[in-house]
Amino acid sequence: MPAEEHQEPREVEELFKDTIELNKKYLRQSFRLINQMSQQGTMDKNIFTIQPELYRKAIKTFSRMNLEYYNNVMDLGFSFADEFLFNRDQVVPPEEPSFTLRGNGVPGSEVQLQFVLENSRNEEVHCELKNTHFVNEMDRQETTGIIAHFSPQAFRQHPDGSQTISISLAIGKQVIPGIYTSHVSVLGFEPTFFAIVLEVDQKAKPSGNATTKKRSAKKG
Predict the structure, then answer these.
(1) pLDDT digits over 138-185, tens only?
(2) Which end of the chain offers a freer environment for a tag, N or C, measured as fewer CB atoms within 10 Å?
């Protein structure tokens, strides 16, 4: 495996070198031919001296061919550069949350949740929690009637450190009973996120307080 990893960049480098040399030869020959064709002294016995219009069309067509070729080479180079520089390190966002916190409450109440976030990296991380609007799972409509407060919302986390985070969910009196979901991103640990699932009932149920096991926001 190590030998293959070192061999591939060398093969790409050699391919680029060979391509550049071929392009240089092609352009040199093109310019030489155009220069020869443009010298009237060399055209005495050429059919173009008899048919000037044919000569003009040939020059025009040959020039267009060179421009198209050069344009295609440039497009290929830029396309490859974009793919190599900008897409190589892109991480596909996860489709599923790392974990889910659940609670329940009634309109006009507050629900308390809690979890522990671990830093599995070997570097200090500045963390900040941000969540999306809660969405009713029944009709997929967003609501601004449920507000999440994180404590702390922003903090620094040392390598291998842990942080207990409390979440207070304020449920507005106008919120319709149902099941609501919000996704919470931990900035500094992108693209990791977790979900909060809140069940809003008409009648009070046992408290929705919850403490999860320790959670790691390290990228997979």
Answers:
(1) 999 999 999 999 999 999 999 888 999 999 999 999 999 999 999 999
(2) N
- CA distance to 52, 73, 91, 97, 163, per residue, from 120 (Å): 77, 45, 18, 18, 12
pTM of the model: 0.53
Identify the residue whose tokens are 């629900």. Answer: 111
